[in-house]
Design a protein that fits this description.
The complex is a heterodimer of chains A (143) and B (418). In chain A, 35% of the residues lie in helices and 20% in strands. Chain A has four helices and four strands; from the N terminus they run αβββαααβ. Chain A is globular, with a radius of gyration of 14 Å. With 418 residues, chain B is of the alpha/beta class. Chain B has two domains: 6-33 and 308-416, Aspartate Aminotransferase, domain 1 (Alpha-Beta Complex), CATH 3.90.1150.10; 50-305, Type I PLP-dependent aspartate aminotransferase-like (Major domain) (Aspartate Aminotransferase, domain 2, 3-Layer(aba) Sandwich). Chain B has 14 helices and 17 strands. Chain B has helices at 9-17, 47-60, 70-89, 104-119, 138-147, 164-170, 193-202, 222-225, 250-255, 290-306, 308-328, 356-365, 378-384, 400-416; strands at 28-29, 32-33, 35-36, 98-101, 125-129, 150-154, 175-181, 206-210, 229-233, 244-248, 266-270, 273-276, 332-335, 346-351, 368-369, 371-373, 389-393. In chain B, strands 4-10-9-8-7-5-6 form a seven-stranded mixed sheet, with helices on both faces. The longest helix of chain B is centred in the C-terminal third of the chain and has 21 residues, at 308-328. The chains are: A alpha+beta (143), B alpha/beta (418).
Amino acid sequence: MDEDKGGLYRAVILEHAKNPRNSGRVENPTLQARASNPLCGDELELTASLEGGILADIRFQVRGCAIVTAAASLMSQVVQGQDLEVARVLGRTFAGVMEGEASDLPADLAALEPLVEVKKHRSRIKCALLPWYALADAEGAGG
Amino acid sequence: MPAGSCSSDVGAMEINANRADFPILQREINGHPLTYLDNAATTQKPRSVIQAITRFYEQHNANVHRAVHTLSEEATALYEDARAKVARFIGAPSARCIVFTRGTTEAINLVAQSWARAHLTAGNEIVLSEMEHHSNIVPWQMVARETGAAIRYARVTPRGLLDRKHFSSLLNKNTRLVALTHTSNVLGTVNPLRDMISEAHDLGAVVLVDGAQGVPRAPVDVAALDCEFLAFSGHKMLAPTGIGVLYAKEHILASMEPVQGGGGMITRVEEAGAEWMEPPWRFEAGTPNIAGAAALATAVDYLTAIGMAEVQAWEASLTEYALAALDQAPGITVFGPRDSLIQSGVIAFNADGVHPHDAAQILDEVGVAVRGGHHCCQLLMRRLGVPAVLRASFSVYNDQGDVERLIGGLERVARVFR
């Protein structure tokens, strides 16, 4: 059926929404942030452990729609093991694509391609960017 | 087919004929006919209302209350006739009780900033309910912060009804203001306002009714309700956005100070100060939404020609039909009274395990427009124990086919998220 192909809810998105990777909390996080979308009530918490500026472990706890859940899951795979500042630059690049300032995803963000469809739906773009906003805002967790 | 639909068959035929009056219903959305079920957010507009706007700008456009030329006389007549028509529509004794605003929100804020700021002090209490829209909560929180008055919230029962006993227990001699919705914008619950208003009056409180959902869906008679204030919006009752109404008892309006100063609201201005016009003009500083008022009058004509009792009966029959269909649909949880006798044209539900925004998005793919979210009712969402719900809401042009397309869309939601 057409509904199973393409569109917003392609198989990759649904699969990540049902089985989000790196879900939960990092114990004794060194980096932490919460982000929410007041429009729809989506909320997520990012916890991570930084080792020498590297995101050694990053996890998300999400209460929200399939898009934000899948976006957090996909993002966690992309930035796991990355330098924090490099990861933040990737976030700005992804935001640029989603907000129409850049047209193509660079190769290091290819895994996020299934989310690009979301940019056609203005009200949902923030769902795809919410985990990246959390990473941009994340601060030390006092540990 | 739910019981009781026979009695609405006649209404169905009459109301069905009206679909052709709404040009937007011809639109296709994602290759499917538009199934518009977001009427609690805003209704679509009949051709006559759209033409009233065009006609105003093509034939009568001028400022009101300002000039002696023909166009200004015509514009003034259209604007003031609209005021009189709205007064008759809600059973108000006089057009002088009708203030035009941008909508319900501005009407409530006007009462909060003018009446409430002048009358409330520390120790006073405002009684609201948990089912209020944020626009009937936040303006009172602003006034409470300024005056030191306290806010009490009447609870909502698990069935989605206002807890009458709890409401009564909140009323006391310190209660100065009670502000309640006529009909819940999420659950469709219709509150037993006459009893509640009379109970509030017994303790000397003033009552504001949020009629944003109630006035478009049922006959509302301010004389029978005896409320001091009624606020409602044009755009939820077939009229354009940007025009709304504050009804108030005449002696109360006369005691209120304006919140905005400007042209059109004074009798005399001197260096040291100014004298206000009589109400309602005192509250309408600046050039008003004249075309909007004229179009609101046309919307009132449209609804009056159907009859508000018929609108109410039609929406009740659709609500019954939809509740029965949603009950049959697997994996759907319905919130609220589930009883068309106390539920008017609005149904809240969720597809189990699917976030309302995802469900609404998939429904949109087949042209079904519903809203998913907290619907500006975060207190109620907390009481229901969910972050968000889906909402289907009806207007005069909806029919059983719309309900069937909604149910078909929900089957698709279930397939995608299986």
